[in-house]
Amino acid sequence: MVLQPVVQIKTKGIKIKEENDKYMIIEIEAGENWDDFVKWSIKHNLIGLQNLAYIPGTVGATPIQNVGAYGIEIKDFLVEVSVINIKDGTEITLTNKECKFGYRDSIFKHELKDSYIVKNITLNLEKYNGHIDDKYLQYAGIKEMADNQNLSLNSLYKIIADIRKSKLPSIEKYGTCGSTFKNPQLPIDEYERLKEQFPDLPMYSTEIENIVKIPAAYILEKLGWKNKRVGDVGTWIYHPLIVTNYGNATGAEILSFIKDIQTDFKSKTNLDLETEINIV
Q1: Range(s) of the domain holding residue 53
Q2: Which of 34, 189, 214, 225 is within CB 3.0–4.6 Å of 240 for a Cys-Cys bond?
Q3: Which among 179, 190, 209, 274 is annotated as catalytic?
């Protein structure tokens, strides 16, 4: 057995680098708790991160995955990332463009994988002017809960946190990597084909012309994968994207379960269901 060292980044610090009446540029150390920083941004009257409420983990993890939820991604606000070379300790800073962000993807999952540790990130956040843009409300669950409320940043944060709490397992009780699969992106005509099979299938626009994103969870639920168990491994009770260890499932059992889901999804839709998590 080869033992591999594990390093946990616990550095703390939030530094306001620049501020005016329209925006604030902030440098955040990688070890800061992500949800605590989201709350910090709301306290400082900054809009944007409230849609990324209640996501577990640290600030430093967010650019690796290009963390996103409810129509918002970290790349929408990121200015730059400072990283440390694991082998020689040298530091470099990457701009937003140099991070090569994609849907749940970045340079850190490819060319720089296992080579660098995130030291800190710098974000540019807008000052809240009393108006919440429709882009923050585009998902049905948010619209439904927000309809009869006088929305503020705090109330929108609470809505999104409550949605996540209702759908996701407690990380204190169950082993899970969160969302296991990416939502497929496909041409609009392919979406229309799928609608014949799944008439109420939602779709969301992307930054690419004629390409839309569909919720994998919707299809997986229709295929019977929500709350599906095989021994100690299964999908979460309320969400088929969350592969969960309910007891003492092995890595091999979890991987086999994931592959079974992918095979079934492919056979029923002719679409590849990519994992959002890294599997090594």
Answers
A1: 14-167
A2: 225
A3: 179
- Check 27, 29, 73, 276 and give the catalytic one: 276
pLDDT at 264: 97
Share of the chain above pLDDT 90, in %: 77
What 3-state class would DSSP assign to 49? helix
Decide: 174 and 249 in contact? Cβ < 8 Å.
Answer: no
- Decide if 276 is inside a domain: no
Model confidence pTM above 0.90: no
Do 53 and 156 fall into the same domain?
yes
Considering the candidates 82, 104, 106, 164, report the single residue annotated as catalytic.
104
Residue 237: give its domain's CATH number: 3.90.78.10
Q: Is 179 a catalytic residue?
A: yes
205 is an active site residue: no
Q: How far is CA 81 from the centre of its chain?
A: 18
User: Does 106 fall in a domain?
Assistant: yes
* CATH code assigned at 66: 3.30.465.10
Q: Is 172 annotated as catalytic?
A: no
* Model pLDDT, residue 1: 60
Structural contact between residues 175 and 245, judged by C-beta atoms closer than 8 angstroms? yes
Residue-wise pLDDT tens digits, 204-213: 888 889 999 9
Q: Number of folded domains in the chain?
A: 2
Cα angle 34, 39, 43 (rounded to 5 degrees) comes to: 145
**Cα(173)–Cα(244) distance, rounded to whole angstroms?**
10
DSSP state of 174: S
pLDDT digits (tens, 9 = 90+) for 156-187: 999 999 988 888 888 778 888 888 999 999 99
Euclidean distance between CA atoms 188 and 222, whole angstroms: 21
